[in-house]
Model the fold of this input.
Amino acid sequence: MITKEQSQKIYILSDQQFSYPILLILTVFDITDGRTGNFASMSSKEASKLIHYFETDNPEDRMRKRIFSLAYDAGLIRNLVTAKWQLNRFLLKHGRVKKELCLLDNNELLEVVIQFQNIIKNKQQREAIRSTKSLLEGLHISVKKSMLTTK
Done:
């Protein structure tokens, strides 16, 4: 079972590295081979692995984490257990580079980050247009279709 000291260290390190809780859950799933997504349920050995992972993090790993969080925001990841598979399937089929996440170099990671940021931006624009149309229809205001489109 995880010790109190390990739990405190993981809490501090994860707070510094993860802006999205989903990334911590995915990392814990990875380290525990899918047994759990909760670091409190980890064994002491698994907790040591997680702490080591946090302490040896490099810029490419941080960018990979960013891609996971962007994929989650974009709605590309729906199931935590299959998150890596979902993301890699998307990258191979629709990604700019057509490689799995673990095979991307620094420049390719940057291209994917930009691609996912654009996906999120477009999704937000579509949602804003949809909400605006709905609001205007509720007020019985007619608007030309061309006035509410993305450019």
Notes: Helices lie at 4-17, 21-31, 44-55, 59-73, 83-94, 106-138.
